[in-house]
Amino acid sequence: MKLASKGMAVVGETEIAIGFRLVGVEDSFDLTGDAAAAKLRELIAEKKHSLIIVSESIRNYLGRDLLQIELLTDPLVVFLPLPGGTDEESVSRLARRVLGVEIGV
User: Which of 31, 47, 89, 97 is most deeply buried (CB count within 10 A of its CB)?
Assistant: First the structure.
């Protein structure tokens, strides 16, 4: 029996959505604010994706759902910091939070 693999989705600003679309991610959504948060919730509920990459800026629009979303493993939701952003999460902190592993630098 072959298990169907789930795809990847991306939700975020134009730069993020276009960038991932250019490398072949079809489910890339150019959305911000409440519209992006609503799309994220919709993608999670659909259960069609195993990985959802979301712009860091969307965290502020998730309210009480944020902690629950951060703890999800199916789908895994990864918040991608925008270049030059003020609250960029280091790669080592991201790996520790998402994967539970320490990366020595």
Answer: 31
